[in-house]
Amino acid sequence: MNSFEWQGLQARGADVGWLAQALQAARADTLQTFACYLAALPATATQPALQVPLLPEFNPPLWELGHIGWFQTVWLARNPQWRLGVRADPQVTRLPSRPDGLGPLDPADALYDSSHVPHASRWQLKLPAPEQAQAELSAQLTQTLALLAQAEAGAAQQYFFRLALLHEDMHHEAALYMAQSLGLAIADARWRPQRLTLARDAVELAATDWRLGQDSGQGAGHGFAFDNELGHCKVNLPASAIDLRVVSWAEYLPFVEAGGYAQPQWWSAAGWAWLQEPAQQPHQAPRYLRKQVGAGGWQVQRWGQWQALDTALAACHLSAFEAEAWCAWSGRRLPSEAEWERAAQTLGSAFHWGQVWEWTSSDFLPFEGFEPHPYRDYSAPWFGQRRVLRGASFMTQPRMRHVHYRNFFAPGRTDMAGGFRSCSRQAAST
User: Fold this and answer.
1) Which residues lie closer than 8 Å to 164 by C-beta, 6 or more apart?
2) How many whole angstroms separate alpha carbon 142 and alpha carbon 159?
3) To which H or E segment does residue 210 belong?
4) Residue 248's closest CA among 290, 298, 195, 285?
5) pLDDT in tens, the chain (430 residues)
6) Are 323 and 420 in contact (CB under 8 A)?
7) Cα–Cα distance between 430 and 361 in angstroms, integer?
8) Distance separating alpha carbons of residues 372 and 328, to the nearest angstrom
């Protein structure tokens, strides 16, 4: 087990001392990255600071900052049932966020409740100034830590603290995605990819029955889990060979250079339709890559700078459609979610993951016995609409890295740090 995997286990079960430090570390990273946005997006004569384009994958940075604090507060300081954990009533009347929040709609909810504030409207909201927003975050974290000091041992009373921690970590990774999309400079070396140093060997795995999921429950032996990880799904897995690491740029680029982006025979119908969308045009190579004509080879744009591409890095910012097209071209396929989990759990340190989120062939669906946790909008609204990714990326906080974690995105997304590994061609069961 590497240090990243250990931190993932700690986030789900360590004592309150570790949890308090982690909450403070997460907030420090949130504010550090927000400072990069403040420096890169100052006010001008024609627009205020922190303006970003209205795009489906973006949120205004100032709204993001307020939402992170709102989420932590609404499930803890304002939640009279926080001690109940997953048994808390999601509709319980919340305490007001401040003295003027006694009306039918709390002012914080009217600004930051992602379930009820339409995405496009967030650009028109009258949000607090950055200095005020950061001061409110500081006061809110102090309140959270005071509550944590009152929490007793056990999964129930610590549940919402862990949920808030990992929620903030997810939003930090999203902030890094947006910074990369906007070409903002992020100097912190923690959020840079590392070279793949091992060969992409494949290991043969015999046919077996595999059970996805975890036992439900809060109590002895049960640490934190997201609701979509709980329950079970029995899968009959055929014999196959799975790569021990993800595909590198050195292995992906020959497909691009062979004209793969112009050859429909390698693409699924959905993938070819995605490739023809106006937003993808001209789309003859992966996002953030360009080929220098005459000299220099491939370049990558990272944190606003074009630089020579290190082809030993994991192929990244790829859609599921691009991953599937490469697999078709090379006579391989994507692993199913069950195949990925089986390999990760049975091969141990020989199975290398954590450089990119890894697309699987599996749709995001609930396991048998699924019961939604109080944060109702986390999983259920997306079942059947997104694709499962496993692992973690170089932009993921180490605390988020866990072998059971199920990430899920629309298959056409390329802003997130997605890549893939491959399997031998036998058909997967899921």
Assistant:
1) 23, 71, 72, 75, 76, 144
2) 18
3) strand 208-212
4) 195
5) 676 678 899 999 999 999 999 999 999 999 999 999 999 999 888 888 999 999 999 999 999 999 999 999 999 999 999 999 999 999 999 999 877 655 567 999 999 999 999 999 999 999 999 999 999 999 999 999 999 999 988 889 999 999 999 999 999 999 999 999 999 999 999 999 999 999 999 999 999 999 999 987 543 345 899 999 999 999 999 999 999 999 999 999 999 999 999 999 999 999 999 998 887 666 789 999 998 876 679 999 999 999 999 999 999 999 999 999 999 999 999 999 999 999 999 999 999 999 999 999 999 999 999 999 999 999 999 999 999 999 999 999 999 999 999 999 999 999 999 999 999 987 555 5
6) yes
7) 7
8) 37
- Helix pair 155-182, 130-148: axis angle to 10 deg: 160
Question: Do you find a cis peptide bond into 96, omega within 30 degrees of 0?
Answer: no
Amino acid type, 259 = G
Give me the amino acid identity at 26: A
Neighbours of 53 (CB within 10 A): 9
Judged on CB neighbours under 10 Å (0-12, 13-18, 19+), 116 is exposed
The residue type of 273 is A
What number of other Cβ atoms are within 10 A of residue 194's Cβ?
A: 11
Q: Give this prediction's pTM.
A: 0.95
Dihedral of CA 109/114/116/117: which sign?
positive
b/e 394-404 (16+ beta carbons within 10 angstroms → b): bbbbbbbbbbb
What burial class does residue 26 get, using C-beta atoms within 10 Å of its C-beta: 0-12 exposed, 13-18 middle, 19+ buried?
A: buried
Q: What is the DSSP letter of 44?
A: -
Place of tokens 């988020």: 400
Write b or e for each residue in 274-286: b if 16 or more Cβ atoms lie within 10 A of its Cβ, otherwise e: bbeeeebeebebb
Q: DSSP code of 39?
A: H
Rg over CA atoms, the chain:
22
Q: Which residue has the tokens 């599996």?
A: 362
Query: Using CA atoms, how far apart are residues 74 and 263, in angstroms rounded to an integer?
Result: 50
Beta bridge pairs of residue 234: 211
